[in-house]
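ok here's ATP-dependent DNA helicase RecG, seq below lol
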Amino acid sequence: MTSQEQTSVRTNFFDTKIEFLKGMGPQRAALLNVELGIFTYGDLLQHYPFRHEDRTIFHRISQLSELMPAAQIKGRLREWTLVGEGNKKRLVAQFSDGSGVLELVWFQGITYFEKSLRPNTEYIVYGKPVAFGSKWSITHPEIELLTAENEKGGYWQPVYPLTEKLRRKFVDSKVIGKLIRTLLEISRPHIHETLPENLVQKYRMVTKADALWNLHNPQSQPWLHQSERRLKFEELFYNQFRLIKNKLLHKTEYPGQVFTKTALLREFYENHLPFELTGAQVRVLHEIREDLKTGKQMNRLLQGDVGSGKTIVAFITMLLALDNDAQACLMAPTEILTDQHYQGLKKFADLLGINIGKLTGSTKKKDREIIHSQLLDGSMQIIVGTHALIEDIVQFKNLGLCVIDEQHRFGVAQRSKLWAKNKYTSPHMLVMTATPIPRTLAMTLYGDLDISAIDELPAGRKPIKTVHRYDAHRLSVFGFIRDEIAKGRQIYMVYPLIEESEKLDLKDLMDGYESISRAFPDVPLSILHGKMKPKDKDFEMARFVKAETKIMVATTVIEVGVNVPNASVMIVENAERFGLSQLHQLRGRVGRGAEQSYCILITDYKISKETKLRLETMCRTNDGFEIAEVDLQLRGPGDISGTQQSGLMDLLIANLAQDGEILKAARISAEAILNTDPDLELPENAPIKKHLSNMRKEETNWSRIS
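and the structure came out like this:
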């Protein structure tokens, strides 16, 4: 071992650079640096396989089926020949096991295989079998010489994330696996336990060292399962430990104004509340009021479907701030949504004699100056606005509450600027979202926030009826539209908008607009799409809100938009091109009034199995939380709108779509330890303290190895 390597090991074994690993070499190390971001022993050991292939069974060629995802066969390589010219040139080998003949085909690496393959020699091949008539073939199979050791079979092959360049350089899963096995053989003395012994015993987990060994070299399926479970638990435990610790720290270090007076609130309840609050709204308001009594800054996420009544909860919370001589602001992502909130709140504010203002990018300079002055002297008690609220010039006398709507549309830096609007004490934060978040995602993304959910619709609201129709049913759909318009209702017709083909989608929209114009020559139409100027969008939307137009032909720009209670039908064209949560958001544009509303999803006949599941889910339920769970299962956590945040994407092995129960157990365990031993002084929690100390020293995840 070189002196440089010895120094590296003494500092931290898992910080050792991978070029020092036997069998690696500088060229291969440089390739792994660039292609996979693997620089150290720690990185390599945490390059986890994403699946394992069953190499415990050998199949006969006579047993092959196209239903098999892959097959392992031992037999004799007879001969091979070059077929075709240019790009179609391929190497085709004949392989037999006595029960039949299998063709092995290579389009790449032809020169290498021509030189390395041995005729009339026994090999093991592995790959996906495909039938062409009576012939079977495997394209680009894994192939290795038959030996006394591998003839036994009986192992699970880890499959690692790779890149095309690595494959071209013949660095495949077997090469990665061999390097990791070499590393594991010298690593074992350095792998220390990272969880308390009582936790390992409670959940009957294997040790950290055994888990790493068997994840990369499973002895059996049960060992593989237990190893994955152990490493997932540890990863989620430390994820939750950090979030809960931050939450507790927040509650102790950030003071907030105490709101106990309720005079305005009582007047609103007794004289002006236009409807009875749902049980869910009452529960959430109780949670908020408890927060506001503590003297600590409230930091709460409020989830609720479109139309569930989040805004009235926000207004009642604002009244608590006003009752206690503080001001409140509500920030929304668009001018349309800001205006909707302003109009909705102003009618209540006027009844109570509250001065409420609106501040957006299009607010005139003269009005802006008045707003700035009134916020500074405290005479304006509530301000509703867009990003304009976070401008430095906007100052408050005493900002006590910030409400942020559609929080995923704002960055952390933007939200934090609102904190700075009160120099003396942090304003309470209530962030709202109409995109229901699955419980596992919420725990991981927002585990440092308190979470409330309004999971019941206001009284009098009828569930939206959702149906799936094919293109061939368009005439009957048009007939239904005529009937609804005759009843005085209004219609949304939405066309997809995919960034990669905006021109094509705009053409779809214009074609749709023309066909609707022909089908309904006497019906006034509006059109709305992302290429329009803001003032033109506002003009078209205003016409629809006033019922001057009866049909709104639009792209998804109306996904989060104005409340039009008279709109009772949402028709989504090419519904197969929308994600599940987006379809649910679009459906939420209707069903805002007391009348029965409908959502019609129109698709082509040719749709995938996954699309069918999405459409069936939409037709079966209006429950946004159930829909979010299905969406998570279908798309995975990284694809769900607004969730690509640090903390979530750091997960190396856990899968939030599948590991909800492990996450729940990890969170309960982290909470219990932090409640009983927040400073980790007890001897049994020493492994956590040591591991966290290592994690703080490292900028990456290397220290997870400990």
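fwiw Residues 193 and 327 are 51 Å apart (CA to CA). kinda neat tbh
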